[in-house]
Specification:
Blueprint: H1 2-6, H2 13-45, H3 50-98, H4 102-107, H5 110-132, H6 134-152, H7 154-201, H8 203-208, H9 212-237, H10 240-266, H11 276-318, E1 338-345, E2 356-363, E3 368-373, H12 379-384, E4 394-399, E5 402-403, H13 409-414, E6 416-419, E7 428-429, H14 430-434, H15 443-452, H16 456-460, E8 469-470, H17 479-491, E9 497-501, H18 509-522, E10 527-531, E11 543-548, E12 551-556, H19 558-564, H20 566-577
Parallel strand pairs: 3-10, 3-11, 6-9, 9-10
Antiparallel strand pairs: 1-2, 1-4, 4-5, 7-8, 11-12
Length: 583
C-alpha cells in the first residue's frame, strides 16, 4: 500500500525532502537553546560575568531566529508537498476510473468513488502533511533532547526513558481499538453520499410523492450512525491526552524532586553534581521529549484514521480494467458488420445465472436491425458488447469480420456510436454538447446532423440557437429534445455502427418516423441497431430480433414474425389498437 501511494508523490519529492531538512535544522537550533541557557545561568549570571551573559544572549537570539526561519521554510515545503500529493492522488484515481470497464465500475458505487476522491484523499493528505513535518520532527526532537539530557545529567535522564514503554503501550492499545471503528465509518460515509445523491437526482419524484419525510429519516438514520461510530472512536482516542499528560506531569515531578535533592547535595557546584542551570535545562528537555511523544501519539491517531482511507484509495488505484488492448491491436475497422458466435455473458464469475445465453446472430454492414423484448430481457447488454463495454464470458463478438478483442479499444469505440437509454447532456452550450461526437466538426456538419436527428427545428427556435446554454443534465430541455440532441451528437462521429438504445421513446411517433426515414436515406451504409418498445419503431427494419430472458426467441422481418411469432403478433396488435402506428 505504501509503495503504491509513494508513486503519487512524483514531482513533490523535493519539497518533501526540503521539509525534512528544514525540520532537522529547526530541531537542532531548538535543542541548543536550553543548553545555551544553562551555560548563561551557571557561568554568566551566577558568576556575575556580564560579557558571557551578552555573548550567550546574542547566541540565543541567533538560535531563536533560525528556529523561526527553518520552521517557516519547513511549513511551506510541507504544505506544498502534502497539497501536491493530494492533487496527484485525485488525478491518478480519476484517470484510472476513466479506463475502467463497466464491470470495474460495477464493483464501486458512485457514492463510494466520490467519498474516496474527497474525504479519503483529504485524510491521507493531512496524514502526509504530518508525516513530512511533525512525524519527522518529533522523533528527531526526542532523540536530540534525550542525548543532551544524558549529557547534562544521566541519572535524571533515565526518568524519560522509563516513561516511554508506558506511552507506547497505551498508544498501541488505542490504535487497535479505534481502527475497526473508522473502517466501519467510511463505509457509512458511502451510504450517506448515496442517500444524498439519490435524493437530489430524484427530487422531483420525492416531491411528487410527498416523500420528503421518508428521505429525511433515511438521511438522519445514516447521519446518526456516523455520529455514533465517531463518538465511540473519539472516546477511545480521548484516553490519549490524559495518558500523555499523566506521564508528563509524573516526569516533571520526578525531575524536579530528584533534581532539587541533587542540587542541595552538590551545593550548586557543577563539579560535584547538578546546578540550577542544568536542572532548568533538564526540565526544558523533559518538556521537549514529552511534547514529542504527545505529537507522535497525535500522528498515530491521524494514521489510524487515514489508514482505512489509504486502503480504499489503493483499491481504486490498483484496480485494473479487465478490458485491455491486444498486444498488437488492429486499428482499422473494415465495415459495420456484426456477428455473435454462441455468446454467453454474466456480469461476474460469482453470478448465479447468465444474462445472455448462446446468442447467435449475424448483421450485415448497412442493415437496419430492430430489437424488441420485455424489461430485463438483456437488450441493452447485448448491444453493449459490440463496442466492448463488456466482454463475452463465452463465445465471441465480431465486428468487420474480426473479434472485437483484436481491435484497439479507442479505434473500435470510435467506429461505434451509442445513444444510451439514459441520455446525458453536460452543462455548456448546445454546440459544446454536440462537439462531444466530433470536436473538429464544422458548423455545416453540426447542422446536418441536427437535421437528421430532427433537432434543428427546436434549436433554431432557441434564443441563441446553437449557443444556447444547456443546464447540467439537460434540465432546461424536454426529454424528447434531449434524445434528439444525443442522436445528433452520435451522428457527428460518422460511425460504421449506430446503436439507438430506446433513444426515441420520448419523441412522438411522427418524429420517430422522420428520424428513421432520414437514416435510411442519408446513412444507408451505416449499420443501425434500434432497441425500442414500440413495434412502429422497428417494423421497417431489415431484421427484427425478439429477446426473452437473454435468449433470441424469434428473428425475421415484420411479415415473417407476424406469421411465426405469437409474442410479436400480440405486441403489434395491442400497440396498433392503441393508436401507436406512424399514421
Amino acid at each position: 500500500m505504501l509503495k503504491r501511494l509513494a508513486k503519487c508523490i512524483r514531482e513533490y519529492k523535493l519539497p518533501s525532502f526540503l521539509s525534512a531538512l528544514f525540520v532537522s535544522l529547526e530541531v537542532v537550533m531548538e535543542v541548543l537553546i536550553p543548553f545555551e541557557m544553562a551555560d548563561m545561568l551557571d557561568h554568566g549570571i551566577n558568576a556575575g560575568d556580564m560579557d558571557f551573559v551578552i555573548q550567550s544572549g546574542i547566541r540565543l537570539v541567533i538560535f531563536a531566529s533560525l528556529v523561526i526561519l527553518f520552521g517557516n521554510l519547513a511549513g511551506r515545503a510541507a504544505s506544498t508537498a502534502a497539497c501536491g500529493f493530494g492533487k496527484n492522488l485525485r488525478h491518478d484515481m480519476y484517470y484510472n476510473i476513466q479506463n475502467f470497464s463497466f464491470s470495474n465500475i460495477d464493483k464501486f458505487s458512485t457514492s463510494s468513488l466520490i467519498t474516496r476522491m474527497t474525504t479519503d484523499v483529504q485524510n491521507v493528505q493531512q496524514a502526509y502533511l504530518m508525516l513530512v513535518r511533525t512525524a519527522f520532527r518529533s522523533p528527531i526532537m526526542m532523540v536530540f533532547s534525550t542525548v543532551f539530557a544524558f549529557r547534562i545529567y544521566p541519572k535524571l535522564a533515565i526518568v524519560f526513558v522509563a516513561c516511554l514503554p508506558i506511552l507506547m503501550g497505551g498508544l498501541y492499545f488505542i490504535m487497535t481499538k479505534t481502527h475497526p471503528i473508522f473502517k466501519r465509518v467510511f463505509k457509512t460515509y458511502d451510504r450517506l453520499n448515496r442517500t444524498v445523491q439519490e435524493n437530489l437526482r430524484g427530487i422531483r419524484v420525492v416531491k411528487s410523492f410527498i416523500r420528503e419525510d421518508h428521505e429525511s429519516e433515511k438521511f438522519d438514520e445514516t447521519s446518526e450512525s456516523i455520529r455514533r461510530d465517531f463518538t465511540r472512536a473519539e472516546q477511545n482516542i480521548a484516553w490519549n491526552a490524559p495518558l500523555m499528560q499523566s506521564c508528563s506531569y509524573a516526569c516533571m515531578l520526578l525531575v524536579s524532586w530528584l533534581g532539587a535533592k541533587a542540587i542541595i547535595a552538590s551545593g550548586n557546584n557543577p563539579d560535584l553534581g547538578l546546578t540550577t542551570g542544568m536542572l532548568m535545562s533538564l526540565i526544558t528537555y523533559s518538556m521537549q521529549i514529552l511534547m514529542s511523544v504527545m505529537m507522535i501519539s497525535v500522528i498515530f491517531v491521524m494514521i489510524t484514521i487515514s489508514r482505512e482511507s489509504a486502503e480504499r484509495i489503493c483499491e481504486v488505484l490498483n484496480e485494473e480494467s479487465n478490458l485491455k488492448n491486444n498486444e498488437h491491436p488492429v486499428f482499422e475497422i473494415p465495415d459495420g458488420s456484426v456477428k455473435f458466435e454462441h455468446v454467453t455473458f454474466r456480469y461476474s464469475e460469482k453470478a448465479d445465472k447468465n444474462v445472455l445465453n448462446d446468442i447467435c446472430l449475424e448483421i450485415k454492414s448497412g442493415e437496419t436491425v430492430g430489437i424488441l423484448g420485455g424489461t430485463g430481457s438483456s437488450k441493452s447488454t447485448l448491444v453493449q458488447m459490440i463496442p466492448r463495454l463488456y466482454d463475452a464470458t463465452e463465445g465471441s463478438v465480431l465486428v468487420g469480420g474480426k473479434d472485437v478483442r483484436e481491435y484497439d479499444l479507442e479505434a473500435l469505440r470510435d467506429s461505434v456510436a451509442m445513444v444510451l437509454q439514459k441520455n446525458v447532456l453536460f452543462s455548456g452550450t448546445v454546440r459544446e454538447n454536440l462537439l462531444w461526437g466530433n470536436e473538429h466538426a464544422t458548423q455545416e456538419e453540426i447542422e446536418h446532423a441536427c437535421e437528421l436527428a430532427q433537432a434543428a427545428p427546436f434549436i433554431n427556435e432557441m434564443p441563441e440557437k446553437y449557443e444556447t446554454y444547456i443546464e447540467q443534465g439537460g434540465a432546461n430541455v424536454s426529454g424528447g429534445q434531449k434524445q434528439r440532441l444525443c442522436i445528433a451528437r452520435a451522428l457527428l462521429k460518422k460511425p460504421k455502427i449506430l446503436i439507438l438504445d430506446d433513444s426515441t421513446s420520448a419523441v412522438d411517433t411522427k418524429t420517430d418516423a422522420l428520424i428513421r426515414k432520414a437514416f435510411a436515406e442519408e446513412i444507408p451504409d451505416t449499420t443501425k441497431i434500434i432497441i425500442a418498445q414500440r413495434v412502429a419503431s422497428v417494423m421497417d427494419s431489415d431484421k427484427i430480433i425478439i429477446l426473452d430472458a437473454g435468449k433470441i426467441v424469434a428473428m425475421g422481418t415484420h411479415e415473417e414474425l407476424m406469421e411465426t411469432s405469437e409474442i410479436y403478433r400480440e405486441t403489434y396488435e395491442s400497440q396498433m389498437k392503441g393508436g401507436l402506428s406512424d399514421e
